[in-house]
Amino acid sequence: MDAETGAILALQILALCSIVAALLAYLMRQSRNATDEYETRNKRHVLVTSCDTSVGLQIAVALYEAGYKVFAGLLDPCGMSPSMKILRAIEQQREKEEDGPVDASYGNPQDPEVRAHRQIVPLELDSTREDSLRACLDAVRAKLPAGEDGLWAVVHTGGLALPGVIERQPSSAWESMLRHNLVAPLRTARMFIPLLRVKRGRIILLGDSTTSYGTKAGTGLVAFSASKKAVEGAADALKSELQSSGVDVVLLKPPPVNPLILYSSPVLKTSDVESGIVSSEGTWTAPVSTQAIQNSLMPALTSPCPRMSYEMVARSRLFCK
Q: Which of 54, 84, 121, 267 makes the best surface tag, with the fewest CB within 10 Å?
């Protein structure tokens, strides 16, 4: 082998080694980033304001299953509402998992680190009342780990849909929907902004679902739709107002599901003895697909620079304003 051929071969070997080293460094960095993101995510605490609604309960459960510690707002956290029955069933299932064999793979729900953080903490909350919001704020602060004084996100899932033709619907129904659908999320945001500012977290609000629900949705839901459209405008303005504080505002656009179902109490499945169908305790039918929740909620929570709004759709198509 002459000197020139040897030099070329040496350069080729050096280039190959450089490529291998760069690839290894990239894989190690990706693994470290994934671990850091996982650990950071599990240290984050989220408040879901109205778990008495079907959509609120489903969002709280999705966050719990993703490894977050969830403060679940309920009108009566000590009662026997359908939501509390479902949450108790989830807690019992968690206890069974902890007693079972542990899978050491990172991110598995049975992993000890996930167990340490994954939790649903029921708290009394009526987001239409200032005193209830203040009491919930104090309760959240008291239940945060030592040295923590911040929330990563507040997801406002409260809502009220009262159907009625506008010509015959009483004004009191409009006022109730405005109080639940517009005033309540603004009150909630105002109360929890100090905790969100600490973590440079985010406020997540639910927008109007009547447009995607279909042309018949407008019948009997005019006032409801008006209140939810106002939420969308408020979210846009609030995002601009809070930009300097580091708190982000994200809007979730509900799927084409009847809002009367989204904002109603969960309906528990019952056993049918004659047909032989037996439902376990705390089972129910969620109004939105799991994939639709994941495609919208997870990016809204985890993206460093989230979009203004996300559609809650089953396919991977996200809507951005």
A: 267
